[in-house]
Amino acid sequence: MKKIISTGLIFCSLLYVLTGCNHDLFHSRISEGTIEYKIIVLDSANPMAKMAPDKMTMKFKNNQEYAELIAGMGLFETSFINDEPGKKVTQMVRMLNKKWAYIADTAAINKELQHDVQFTITETDVTKMIAGYKCKKAIAKSKDGKNPDVELYYTNDIKLDQPNWATPFKEIDGVLMQYRIAKYGFYMEFTADKVEPDKIEDGTFKLPADYKMISKQQIDDLYKGFQ
After folding, report:
1. In contact, 95 and 114? CB cutoff 8 Å
2. Which has fewest Cβ within 10 Å: 8, 104, 172, 191?
């Protein structure tokens, strides 16, 4: 299966793949909290499938998002900070006790997106409940017809402006609650199973001082080595 989103930006697509739905009467439109996603590896016959992450945690506040995934039975951790106001994305990788980071500004993100699959987003009338939120379905179709369609369920009941600005799904102005992507050599499905209003510390969205800055090529090489 061909990758749908490049390595450097995939988790913007998750972190930053949030949705556009109508909401359940029991919810108010929250602007700060945590979303937990369950991850299912769809091509489980892959011998490395057991090394894939099974959960993603995303924290959000003030149009900033922090997403974290742990793979390789805890040996490998990747996280992303999506700073929409600052128009930059920070990607962090930890392998055992070694830590690296790469920061992409708007120019770098736009350059990367030019090499990604280009999608046409089609809205539908289909809705379903996910983690207590009534979400609307959209379908992303690759413009060249060479990649499978991507089903996206999103909600507008989580207060984040342009959460997908750094992804191929930027037309969707909502928080993604269910979607599929290719990552770590696997095809995976992400589904939100818990949304909790919570106080998030401002420091969550800052790069820790113990991460070593590296280039985009170097961070891509780390992912290739993991695969």
Report:
1. no
2. 191
Nearest to 78 by CA among 215, 194, 220, 176: 220
Distance of alpha carbon 106 from alpha carbon 99, whole angstroms: 24
Nearest to 124 by CA among 134, 135, 137: 137
CATH numbers and ranges of domains, the chain: 10-226 (2.50.20)
Pairing assessment for the beta strands 88-95 and 98-105 based on DSSP bridges: antiparallel
Distance in angstroms (rounded) separating the CA atoms of residues 227 and 34 = 29
Maximum distance among all alpha carbons in the chain?
A: 48
Measured in whole angstroms, the distance separating CA 17 from the mean position of its chain's CA atoms is 5
- How far apart (Å, rounded) are the C-alpha atoms in residues 139 and 149? 7
Sorted by sequence, the CB contacts under 8 Å of residue 44 that are 6+ apart come out as none
- Per DSSP bridges, beta strands 76-83 and 186-197 are unpaired
Higher model confidence: residue 67 or residue 75? 67
Distance CA 101, CA 90 (A): 7
What integer is the mean pLDDT of 108-127?
Answer: 91
At 24 the three-state DSSP class reads coil
Burial class (CB in 10 A: 0-12, 13-18, 19+), 153: buried
Please report where in the chains the tokens 């011998």 appear, as a residue: 47
